[in-house]
Amino acid sequence: MKLLTHIPCPVETATVLSRMNTTSREKHTAAIEKLLIQANEKIKPAMLYKRCPVCFKDESSVIVNDVEFNSRILKVNLENAKNAFVYIITCGQTYEDFLHSLDDMLDRYYVNEIGNVMLSEAQAQFLRYLEKTYALECISKMTPGSLEDWPLSEQKKLFALLTEEAIHEKIGVTLEENMLMTPVKTLSGIAFPTASPFENCQMCPQISCPGRKAPYDDSLKKTYF
User: Quick one: which of 7, 28, 107, 110 is 20 to 30 A from 77 by CA?
Assistant: First the structure.
């Protein structure tokens, strides 16, 4: 298991504004820039991961480091992978403290969007780190709960693989009974080498999602099912 705390994840004003559903971005710019200075100084995302061997069980499940995950899509994605990377990334308690230190509701809204962008950037930087460190040409990821095929209940197995005690000790993340993680700006998943990029969004028909990274592709069902 490896802990990363040194990978920079700077957030730019334009990226935050692009997530906001507004036609008058100019009036928000100054406030966001001010909050970003504080956020980039205070919040340092942490990443905990483990490189794990991949084995296969049946058509709808895959074994990663002796833990069985039930997902047809994950199984197909890992079919040609010898190893996968189980990970958790968090903006940590410093983000929570910063958010709750703000009295103005609009500032809280801005910082919520800043947190979303920072977490997304941290994940992107982490994937680039894996590509460079392990000499991988292309790496993609899946996150439990993002698709019906891999439900949020599988989060428990991911935490068991990394061990809940170690996760809390090293990066302060806790898995609640409802399978959600705290602190709130936290992501988990399995990253894997692949010949072509894969995004959960490609299999999700929810078009209005603000975090969409790729268009829905109905034809992919033939590949996975």
Answer: 7
